[in-house]
Amino acid sequence: MRCRICEAALAPFVSFGRMPIANGFLTEADFATEPLFELAAARCEACGMVQLLEQPAPEAMFHENYAFFTSTSRSMAQHFGRLAEGVMSGYVEGDRPFVVEIGCNDGVMLERLARAGVRHLGVEPAANVAAVAQSRGVQVLVAFFDEALAHGLLKDHGPADAVVATNVMCHVGALHPFVAGIKTLLKPRGVLVFEDPYLGDIVEKTAYDQIYDEHAFYFSVVPLSRMFAQHGLEIVNVEPQAVHGGSMRYVVAHKGARRVSPSVAAHRGREADLGLDRPATYEAFRHRVEQSRDALVVLLEQARGQGRRVVGYGATSKSTTVTNYCAITPRLVEYISDTTPIKQGKYSPGAHIPVRPYEDFKASYPDYALLFAWNHAEEIMANEQAYRAVGGQWIVYVPKVGVLA
Ligand code: TYD
Q1: CA of 158 to the centre of ligand 1 (A)
Q2: What does pTM read for this prediction?
Q3: Pick from 23, 91, 115, 133: CA 20 to 30 A from residue 99's CA?
């Protein structure tokens, strides 16, 4: 496998072995046919882009049973509301503005634009989440975005003031044609606004669970700038976001069309300080990942050895990497509590831990809750004061394995 961006050699730095599809929650009948692939991350020796070595076909990940609904968390809904306001106040200009969102999911962002009467279109390949968006009054096209589709959109709707893509770009293995399509769609002062988990946070927090099938890329400012330059585009602003355990919002424009904010140079500096351009940083990361796995297994074995009940909290995609890499079975974690109806009554990918409704957690508190949804820690801790009040404890593993006192 060669770099998806520049075709140079890739230097693998962490391997997790054979893994299932992270969002592939399944029934017992499907255990025997569950697809597996080799999960490993690598860094391009030439352009520096961190990426997966192997990625399953998109159709295996994003389909009519896609289990991810953006609006399942209150704080995420608020985040996307603020993003919508920011797009409307910052980048929507002139007569009959037009905003395209690629991967609009259940429409939580575009709903604001629809209500404000802004011309918009969501492009969403997963039919089930797209149907929810449509029921909210959002215009949606059920399709994978690519260059050909971009030309069709341009013809049918005209150019866009803004193209928005949150937690989408890092999923797209064939990034060059995707970016070429976006460039085609943008007005001369149009912008691409996108957010994805940030490599700096992943490395700093040893958040290895961000590495799973859907995430083809682990972006940072320096390699992204090189990639956009090849398309006559440039990053004009970057803004760290707390969501998804540490994300970055990038604003990209045609080269020279907009003023470049000092935040871009500041983040290049931060990336150099973090050593994101040095192989030794990734060696050290792998070492910390192995230590994290070993420490988590010891902690869970100890708890079970003492006859304590451990329940997973939040059947996140990220948890699939953790449960499979650490070989966490239902012997160690009784079940995973999750509020998403489509996941309930199914089993977690690979590890086959039952996923049960949150009501089960409330009805009989365990001794320990293993916080798989650590990216929502603030919201969850605020909601779970009653659990703590009766002596319930939290096991965490990002940034370090431990029990929250
Ligand atoms: P998410 O944050 O989207 O992580 P990932 O991108 O790794 O899938 O997933 C959060 C999951 O946790 C989702 O299935 C909903 C669930 N959840 C709860 O069960 N309870 C909660 O209080 C919160 C905030 C989330």
Answers
A1: 37
A2: 0.95
A3: 23
